[in-house]
């Protein structure tokens, strides 16, 4: 616990240096990046406070009326002022479904990245510190892991979850299934990054010293390794967030994951696809645009972070 | 050297066994294949009888063992859905997937590398920013949406658009399948007919976009790294032309990790081929696999995953061995660490 | 005789016209290729391999039964020219003479007897038909007696999909048993090769890619089609399939999403071809368990209470579903059968009124004023807009306080969960049914009878009324049409009064056809090439 607090303090310290340093400077100098950051922040805030922001709650079945379906955006003929961006095939307002959908997409994204990060850092440290057989086993597991693309893993885990879990849970596990499936395909990158750094650190004297004092050396290393790898880890995490959101959308295309009654952005796009030819373009184009803008903004941030955190490129 | 190779081979076999085990164990849960093999009026007793004949009631380990023993002999069993040997099905489907992936990879390399070099050399250039931002769209839209939008534009709307414009702006392109194929032995190729080549356009663009963006970004960051190294500085100091430095020294050094990582991207190419094939009804391995999942065709699913596992293990092994030959130190992991997507 | 003369005259005329065309086009015989797409592939070429509408319908282009149906579903002679009920349990079929299989072998009674044996073989999925036949006896080379286990007045209606194979060909290629999925008969010959008597022949087959058919020049009947080659491609994605049709890559595609009808009407060169399908879509409840598997009500089963079932019925705004989900293309129904089905009675087809207030009152009366929670099972790729119907039902039920947890899955997972072999693992579900015999006895027996003695196999909710079950047996053997109709009416009336299921509607047939082709549409979604003409 104390070690964690220490790590947090270090993190805070790093952040302070961050704002005083060149990175913040480079941030303020780039309008594209500022716009990206604002967009990302907007998405995150409106997702977190969706019940306050959204005009309707599209997940509340009793409040939606099938007869309201297929209303076009408000500026077109037949538009309805209640539904700014129109309604979908079930009579839900598109704007509200996008806000609630982003909440789910981002929730799955953040959770899976966090899961991958924790798992990857832990395994990377263990692998780097112990080396030998432990290292070989973990790295071969990583090989197996890489063999299965995220989409395959998700299909498999989804099947497993349905079979193994008690039947009452079927409706609720989709979130964990997605987080597990998407997260599992990311951990290898963190593990390999951390492992490299840990291999360098493990022979340093302070690690030997810690062992003599009786503190678990792995924990000591965590404090020294983390700051070293924070840059790359942050970059990987940002890009992973973008990939996670896209992967979730792709999975919903294959029919795995989020139930239709509480759709994510990807599910909205998939459902909207069915109405692309029939002229109700708003059902798919608005969620599609929202997804693209969100992912683009996150990707641009990641890109910029990668360059900004690379001291050689400054 | 020999010890290293033997150890890696043993590890690879273990990996394969693990892949097979995971794949197979998960498949036993994905659904009941019987429903897809019989019609609605088949009675319970008949269904149970079929289960027994297929050995679906045996313990899991026995089913897996049976699968492995046969797989080693090249017999992946009979597809429940097609009622034909899985090995035949895979042999039929491999050319479609490989041709599509090959064209997509070429597209990605031939567009991605020059764009990466350009953006690496002109870091702050306006065009570089445009390239970087536009290419990000390639990874900001889900593959399936890109595919469907391409179909909408080039398949459905092109006629209307051309009529409205009064001239042929957009060609009408095939939106599904491989077109006419020519049989060369057991290999069916779409490269030799006009319709086959036309049919490749939309799916290969869809599949290439993601890889292209990755390659471009990778080349760019590698270029940036390499350009800062001392020997590039020395090369400049020696008075070599920019051109010789950039392409003779920098790009050459960039390409080694790029090619390695592109090779290791096989998994994601296969994964995205899955989606692309589904959208364009491209009769390859991915389509076979997705249909197998929907129909709970266990032998096909298991064989497909075993095969991907095999490909990947082999490529990993080759990369490891190459690195071993080139540099006996711990470079294998470093190279891969840079290759995240 | 007169007919034959006229036919030959017409043939001569057509030949003359063709000859003229030949001269004009400079010696090139005009090739008419017809291309069409469906959402899935034919599963096997073996006519006894799979009991599935699409597969059997496709096979009927090259295999034939003793009887067949016209595009209007009228039963007409095929390989049999006439049939009569010589004894209560025996039907005598007189076979068509001069028919040959595509390999040149002659068709005769031996082939019929052989085919009866083959549908009884281990791998056969046509055992439903096999169960109708106790014995098949050769009277002479062109006469066969079929003995039924009990008197069966409707046997000929049930034989359309019993296709006849050539005995010699099957023996020669070691395929005397139906294709067996176990796999100890790798590459069963009949699975990928076909030798029927029908109007077309299989020229090329690449599973999941394409299947090419060409006309059978020696067919006994008169082929109305002018096509010289037909190419079938499965295209699973709706958007891709519709795009292929609009861009002219195929002449015909089905099913087309109902929301795309307008696009097809507006697009140049294509139009939708629609009609009422004989498939009825309905909802069902688990009424057999004492406690529902998926509900927050413990210790009792609310669906055992008829008032709850009726409340559900009256809470559903079928007009909104018809108008918004089905785009006006469905036919609301109160019966478990469609108008095309033998035994349908329009007088019984009026639905209970949609009335949310009445539904709420019924729920209160039943002791659930605040409703309850229940999980609904729904397929998402089996029926027209199935998942959307379930979503709409869920939001309608929310208005009477019922919280529906929707579990919509791909068909293999859905059926794997709710069918008998998984012990009817459902509380509330959506299902669709087309009686394969086009007779009401089939749904009364399979869907509405108590689950006993082989009946009620697809009565997923376990609705059970002894009288209805008894009626199923009586209808099976009743020969007098009027009495039989009265029995059918009684069964439907009881089932409707007790709200055994909630019938929703008959879904539409939804094909898209290019202006360059004309096709005939059958109410059971079967597509026959012999009625296709290409401009």
Itemize the secondary structure elements and their pairings:
The complex is a heterotrimer of chains A (314), B (341) and C (535).
Chain A: H1 2-20, H2 22-29, H3 31-48, H4 50-53, H5 94-130, H6 132-147, H7 150-164, H8 174-184, H9 187-201, H10 205-213, H11 217-253, H12 265-273, H13 282-309
Chain B: H1 2-27, H2 34-37, H3 44-54, H4 60-72, H5 86-121, H6 126-140, H7 143-165, E1 182-184, E2 187-189, H8 194-227, H9 230-237, H10 242-264, H11 266-280, H12 285-295, H13 298-326, H14 331-337
Antiparallel strand pairs in B: 1-2
Chain C: H1 2-24, E1 33-38, H2 53-59, E2 67-69, E3 75-77, E4 80-87, E5 90-95, H3 109-119, H4 127-130, E6 135-140, E7 143-147, H5 167-172, H6 189-192, E8 200-206, E9 210-215, E10 229-234, H7 238-246, E11 252-254, H8 261-266, E12 270-285, H9 306-315, H10 318-325, E13 331-332, H11 356-365, E14 373-379, H12 386-398, E15 403-409, H13 411-418, E16 428-433, H14 441-446, H15 466-477, H16 481-497, E17 501-514, E18 517-518, E19 533-534
Parallel strand pairs in C: 1-10, 1-11, 14-15, 14-16
Antiparallel strand pairs in C: 2-3, 4-5, 5-7, 6-7, 8-9, 9-10, 11-17, 12-16, 12-17, 13-17, 18-19
Helix pairs in contact in C: 9-11, 15-16
What does this structure look like?
- The complex is a heterotrimer of chains A (about 325), B (about 350) and C (about 525).
- Chain A is built from 13 helices and no strands.
- Chain A has about 325 residues and is an all-alpha fold.
- Chain A has a single domain, classed as MetI-like fold (Orthogonal Bundle), CATH 1.10.3720.10.
- Chain B has about 350 residues and is an all-alpha fold.
- In chain B, about 75% of the residues lie in helices and about 0% in strands.
- Chain B has a two-stranded antiparallel sheet.
- The C terminus of chain B is likely disordered.
- Chain C is an alpha+beta fold and about 525 residues long.
- Chain C contains 16 helices and 19 strands.
- Chain C is globular, with a radius of gyration of 25 Å.
- Chain C starts with a helix and ends with a strand.
- The N terminus of chain C is likely disordered.
- At the A-B interface, α6, α7, α9, α11 and α12 of A face α1, α6, α7, α8 and α11 of B.
